[in-house]
């Protein structure tokens, strides 16, 4: 009855530990068994999981997969010394497949829920998808081509427009006409919303608004400048053109931006002078003469000829023709346009149409004198203007009662007609 306990006690003693009890011995052995079971599960669980994954994918796609083991890891035994064992990390590798095969088999398994197509994205927002990628691109290209006004301009959509190929829900697929209609409805709704916010202003930009950028080249005139040069040889107020002014030219390039045909900006990007302007030079008199200079209005009491050259065609007094009509002045025949000048300095009292005299000028001088210049083609002075002796006041012509271009010249004293020949050059 006492032999077994003695044998057990001997086995414990052989272990070299007299303090072990029977209970402690069995407890230690149990802990070792649990560690072994845990290690086995660490190996087998991933294998079973990978196998399950392979079975599921293989069932749906018909593709064969292989399970491979990789890497190694460490574990700790009895919470003490680390040891190295093979890792329980596994991966699946297709034995015989390609991306196209997988994609086709996944699409087949989707059973009409998704399909391949081209999606239209405007400003990053999805609009619609279609299976007719070619028709969608033709529609977009057609919008750009119709918006181009010149062959050299560039056109682009204002909003970023992208066409992305991929998988889309079958319920989202539309034909190109339906996509156009969706875009039109979206534009109308946006315009209506803007009008409600600001009735007087509608700045909503259509989804497929087109920006056209073009360059316009034109030739512009460069106006010449006028330079005045003082000249002591000319009377005060007298001017003389020394050099005629000529406009220059420049080539100007402008960049014009249109959005849906409406100009939004115009900017000059370059200017090139192709012809320099010529400055007009005008001599301005500074000489103070006895007559006081042009525009001084000073009467000298001495009368000069109203035109340069010419021929007297009719004298002062009664005429033998026209029924003996009295001629109140002196007719001097000259070509049309000949300069008519003031016989003496004074103030203009008449400048315009004057009955039978046609276009006429009357100048009032000091001492009750006045002079008249008739039948002019044009008048260069105005009423109230002061003129000096020798200053041009008109251009000879044949207006009014006249048979040819000439200057009708009269001298009056307190309203009475006098023979001009008695006063000229005296």
What does it look like?
With about 425 residues, the protein is of the alpha+beta class. It is built from 5 helices and 24 strands. The strands form 6 sheets. Strands 13, 16, 17, 18, 19, 20, 21, 22, 23 and 24 form a 10-stranded antiparallel sheet that branches. Strands 5-7-10-11 form a 4-stranded antiparallel sheet, with helices on one face. Mean pLDDT is about 80; it is low at about 1-20, about 65-90 and about 90-95.
Write the layout of secondary structure elements.
Elements: H1 3-14, H2 22-61, E1 65-76, E2 82-94, H3 99-110, E3 114-122, E4 125-130, H4 133-147, E5 154-157, E6 161-169, H5 176-197, E7 210-222, E8 226-235, E9 239-243, E10 248-259, E11 262-275, E12 280-287, E13 311-314, E14 317-318, E15 326-327, E16 330-333, E17 339-341, E18 346-353, E19 359-364, E20 369-379, E21 386-387, E22 392-396, E23 406-413, E24 416-418
Parallel strand pairs: 8-12
Antiparallel strand pairs: 1-2, 3-4, 3-6, 5-7, 7-10, 9-12, 10-11, 13-16, 14-15, 16-23, 17-22, 18-19, 18-21, 19-20, 20-22, 20-23, 23-24
Which key features would you list for this structure?
426 residues; alpha+beta; Resuscitation-promoting factor rpfb fold; 4 domains; four-stranded antiparallel β-sheet; 24 strands; 24% helix; disordered N terminus
> What is the number of independent domains?
4
Question: What is the CATH architecture assignment of the largest domain?
Answer: Distorted Sandwich
The general outline is: rod-shaped
The largest sheet is: 10 strands, antiparallel
Q: What structural category characterises the helix and strand content?
A: alpha+beta
């Amino acid at each position: 009855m006492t032999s077994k306990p003695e044998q057990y006690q001997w086995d414990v003693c052989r272990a070299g530990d007299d303090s072990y009890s029977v209970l402690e011995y069995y407890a230690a052995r149990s802990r070792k068994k649990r560690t072994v079971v845990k290690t086995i599960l660490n190996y087998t669980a991933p294998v079973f999981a990978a196998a399950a994954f392979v079975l599921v994918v293989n069932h749906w796609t018909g593709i064969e997969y292989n399970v491979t083991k990789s890497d190694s890891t460490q574990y700790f035994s009895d919470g003490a010394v680390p040891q190295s064992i093979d890792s329980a990390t596994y991966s699946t590798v297709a034995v015989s497949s390609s991306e196209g095969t997988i994609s086709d088999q996944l699409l087949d398994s989707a059973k009409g829920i998704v399909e391949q197509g081209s999606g239209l994205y405007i400003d990053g927002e999805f609009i619609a998808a279609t299976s007719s990628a070619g028709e969608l691109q033709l529609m977009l290209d057609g919008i750009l081509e119709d918006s181009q006004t010149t062959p050299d301009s560039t056109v682009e959509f204002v909003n970023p427009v992208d066409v992305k190929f991929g998988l889309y829900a079958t319920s989202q697929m539309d034909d190109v006409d339906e996509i156009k209609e969706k875009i039109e409805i979206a534009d109308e709704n946006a315009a209506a919303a803007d009008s409600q916010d600001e009735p007087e202003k509608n700045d909503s930009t259509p989804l497929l608004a087109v920006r056209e950028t073009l360059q316009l080249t034109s030739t512009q005139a460069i106006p010449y400048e006028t330079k005045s040069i003082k000249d002591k040889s000319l009377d005060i107020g007298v001017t003389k053109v020394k050099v005629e002014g000529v406009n220059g030219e420049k080539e100007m390039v402008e960049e014009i931006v249109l959005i849906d045909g409406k100009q939004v900006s115009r900017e000059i990007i370059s200017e090139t002078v192709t012809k320099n302007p010529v400055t007009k030079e005008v001599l301005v008199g500074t000489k103070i003469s006895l007559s006081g200079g042009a525009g001084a209005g000073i009467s000298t009491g001495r009368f000069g000829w109203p035109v340069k050259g010419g021929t007297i065609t009719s004298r002062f007094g009664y005429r033998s023709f026209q029924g003996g009509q009295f001629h109140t002045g002196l007719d001097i025949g000259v070509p049309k346009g000949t300069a008519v000048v003031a016989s003496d300095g004074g103030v203009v009292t008449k400048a315009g149409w004057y009955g039978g005299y046609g276009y006429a000028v009357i100048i009032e001088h000091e001492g009750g004198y006045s002079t008249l210049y008739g039948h002019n083609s044009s008048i260069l002075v105005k009423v109230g203007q002061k003129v000096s002796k020798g200053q041009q006041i008109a251009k000879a012509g044949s207006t009014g009662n006249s048979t040819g271009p000439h200057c009708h010249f009269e001298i009056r004293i307190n309203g009475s007609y006098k023979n001009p020949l008695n006063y000229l050059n005296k």
